[in-house]
Design a protein that fits this description.
Number of helices: 4
Order of helices and strands: EHHEEEHEHEE
Strand content: 25-35%
Radius of gyration: 15 Å
Strand order of the largest sheet: 1-2-3-4-5-7-6
Helix content: 25-40%
Number of strands: 7
CATH architecture: 3-Layer(aba) Sandwich
Largest sheet: 7 strands, mixed
Number of domains: 1
CATH class: Alpha Beta
CATH topology: Aminopeptidase
Amino acid sequence: MLIQPAELADAPSVMEILTLCREEMRVHGIDQWDETYPNLQIVEDDARSRSLFVIREDGRCVGSVCLNDLQPAEYCSVPWRCTGGRALVVHRLCVLPERQRRGVGRRLMEFAEDCARERGFACIRLEVYIGAPRAVALYEHLGYQRVGQVRFPRRRLPFDCFELSIAGTK
């Protein structure tokens, strides 16, 4: 599996994966994403800023993740453990539903950890909709520590915030 920075031309493929994931989540009662978020403009902005990465199998985009240091305002109330140094933030990780449970998400998170290490980040932060137990389980399995919760508009349930210290890993 090849992971590389996304080009603007990848945005429609990434948006298709996000849409398929949203539809799959709805089947399971998960209302993490809706028709307004995420959207093509956000994905295109991620690609333009070089913060969007895609993972390909046989040339086909099967997943993506946005990695940057932009933290939602809601993060201000979270009792983060890593208070010294910069935090890399994971946004909109998605894997084509037919490729889920095959290590693609895990590989994207390993890539995020490598990026954080290489770029001098002290930790990685992310939030996960608590109504998405498979996603929560992935981050727990990868060693991320739950540190608090946030709420976002139009969401029925809160999001668990997770953090991983980069110092001393790998």
